[in-house]
Amino acid sequence: MIHWLADPLQNAFMVRALVASTFIGLTCSVIGVFVVLRNLSFIGDGLAHASFAGIVIAYMMKANLYVGGLVVAVLTALGIGSIAKRSELSLDTTIGVLFTAAFALGVLLMSRARSYSSDLQDFLFGNILGVDRLDIILVVSLAALVLAIVMLLYKELLFSSFDPVMAQASGLPTDFLYYLLLVLLAVTIIVSLQAAGIVLVAALLVTPAATAYQLTTRFGTMMVVSAVVGVVSSIGGLYLSYYLDAASGATIVLTATACFFLAMIFSPRRRSLLSAVLASRRATVRAR
Predict the structure, then answer these.
(1) Which residue, among 9, 116, 11, 120, has the nearest Cα to 55 in the 3D structure?
(2) Which of 220, 223, 206 is nearest to 257 (CA)?
(3) How many helices (H) and strands (E) are present in the chain, helices listed first?
């Protein structure tokens, strides 16, 4: 067992990947709790696709791909929030319009480029094994920034998420907190693109939090459980990727999905429901 865990660490790329995946799993699972409780799952997927336009633009300008993706993701997040609040369109409709437009722009620009390297494909499908030292610094810095803001404004974000009307009546700047959460979500998605890619990054946001929600309804406990599931899934999926010689993004997401189904089986609410059904059947049999 020790050899199974230690052997991959003799490779420098695995050490870098483990550091990056740990921070990515932690950040995604913490922000994911707010995403699940505020029904923002679709916007996570939308921002990931929208960031592709910024990545392609940065690639064509020979700029940093993370920065390009981050700028477009943040602008898209603020645009979605602003249009949804000021128009009669639903949030899902606004997301559908803006993210497909941004993704289409990225596809258009990529098709016009004379050539493109495998870097762009890595952002589509993820390649955590390919992170270099600069990527590590960027991922750790942005993840630390997101986690620090969440810790600093924990009570305010919690109050405005559960009861925005009462939060506004209490004097909290609910609009500012809403837009701040969207920006944090956009930053988290950009941090995670190297691990799971645009196609799968939404799973890193939603699945650990949904797993925790099966086990507890207390917000603080849910955030801790979600963080544990996110980190364990990221590290476990990375080891599976190494030994199976498979895509790292897919193994990380499938490991998180396995945790979700295990949580469903052992969920206290499911056990309570099963106990109630069994008790009802026993009562029916006795009555006969």
Answers:
(1) 120
(2) 206
(3) 13, 0
Q: Is 10 exposed, middle or buried (0-12, 13-18, 19+ CB in 10 A)?
A: exposed
Residue that has been written with the tokens 């929030």 in this structure: 81
Question: 40 to each of 35, 52, 130, 137, 182, how far by Cα in Å?
Answer: 5, 20, 30, 28, 9
User: Letter for the amino acid at 133?
Assistant: R
pLDDT digits (tens, 9 = 90+) for 222-280: 999 999 999 999 999 989 988 998 888 888 889 999 999 999 888 776 655 555 555 66
CB atoms closer than 10 angstroms to residue 105: 17
- 42, 86, 9, 54: which is closest to 242 by C-alpha? 9
Q: Which residue carries 């660490």 as its tokens?
A: 9
The answer, as to whether pTM is greater than 0.90, is no
Taking the C-alpha atoms of residue 257 and residue 86, their distance in angstroms, rounded to an integer, is 36
d(CA 98, CA 77): 9
Q: How many residues does the chain have?
A: 288
What number of other Cβ atoms are within 10 A of residue 275's Cβ?
Answer: 10
